[in-house]
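Design review, sub-item: ligand-bound model
Attendees: FS, YL, KQ
YL presented the inputs for the guanosine-5'-diphosphate complex:
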Amino acid sequence: MNITELGDSIINGDRRALARAITLVESARADHRAQAAALLEHLRKADRQALRIGMSGTPGVGKSTFIESFGMMLIARGLRVAVLAIDPSSARSGGSILGDKTRMDLLSREKNAFIRPSPSQTHLGGVARRTREAVTLCEAAGFDVVLIETVGVGQSETVVAEMSDIFLLLLAPAGGDELQGVKRGIMEMADIILVNKADGDLKATATRTCADYAGALRLLRKRPQDPEGFPKAMTVSALQEIGLETVWDEITTLAAWRMAQNHWAARRADQARFWFQQELRQALLARLETAAAREAMATLGDAVARGELSPASAAQQMLSELSQD
Ligand code: GDP
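KQ shared the predicted structure:
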């Protein structure tokens, strides 16, 4: 594969090249990893940035409906939109919470939209790396907005927040008791809470829920990266397309403020440092997973169990073996 050609095709907006490149970064094969690294390096020359919007919510809250209508609105404004996903369930079981059902039906037919489902069948760290690299590829391809979706379970929100500029939390209208169900840590990550389904019979409940969350947000510690009024809670109806323009206005207001205050660049720099460290950690751990390393570890483990070696010297021996290959 000619990496320079592939990279240039991506920069020129060739969707098939983009899809092929994402497949490349999703591969765990050592030669593919080397090619992926070369490709990502080559794409730095494009020097393009998209607005990276992370989004989380429990199954059924309306994520795909929201992405569909929000994405279509952005496209109507002349923007190009990429949608990526991190499905933590695929990491564990090979199954999928984000769903195999056809999602975002209208959006998927738009030439200015690009939708890629979550990489699957690996640990969350692996899914995270692949998605983060896919974000970079979409930026190089000239997308204006990259939406990164996840489901509200476990660590996946943190992972998405670490690769987003702005984080949206989608919630359903609910009684006051359920407010407690949203973990404080997740509330603290949110820049904008969207109470969805604010339509029909649910409208009054949604308005009340939104007020409850607005109150809860005010109790959180003020963050230096927020202008007055953020983080905030709003109601929307993804289905009836109510409030979507306002969501976009709030997002762009927040983004502009952070850029002007230099919080934007600082956050991206922190994220880049974080991902470098993650990448290194994962690469080191992967070296323990080779057949030879597993065998050496089993042999040394047996020796430690028999009392022939101390755990410390067995570990030293293992480390020196690893550094030889
Ligand atoms: P996801 O699992 O978070 O992706 O949720 P979906 O987008 O698949 O939506 C789950 C259900 O909620 C579907 O039946 C949607 O039609 C419905 N839904 C989504 N958004 C809205 C909304 O704004 N209002 C109402 N009333 N229903 C909605």
